[in-house]
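hey so u asked for the seq, here:
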Amino acid sequence: MYEILAAIDGSLASDRALEATVELARATGGHVHVVHVRELATVGAYGAVYRSEPEEAERLVQGYVERLRAAGVEADGAPRDATHPEVARDIVEAAREHDASVIVVGSRGRGDIGSIALGSVSHDLLRRADRPVLVVTARCARGPGDGQRSA
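ran it, structure tokens below
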């Protein structure tokens, strides 16, 4: 079976990536594993501090899983805690664990300079991944008439 890893963060770009994931899963008869990596905010004397709560991350992942299933796609998922400051490294590890054929991720569409200055998981993922990565920008919206010419 074709395994797809969908890495999400709850953004508009993740929603667009979910749409692409549905299309890819339908075309391949694939199974989707949804992952959300809880980013490290800091590591101090008392251990790791994350940017989101575990319950929030679980709700986010399960919401995406439900949307995939409602679209007729076989899906499961789980959040995971970052083990590195670079979230992309944890996404690649999840892809290996699930033997994913492809990783689908959303991107806010920042340019190279913005990615360097602000950090970009999708940009870092492209450098680190050992398998294909489908990057879907928030601008990849499909609406009525998209891709069609009027007469």
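The domain at 3-137 is CATH 3.40.50.620 (Rossmann fold). The two ends are 42 Å apart (CA to CA).
lmk if thats what u needed
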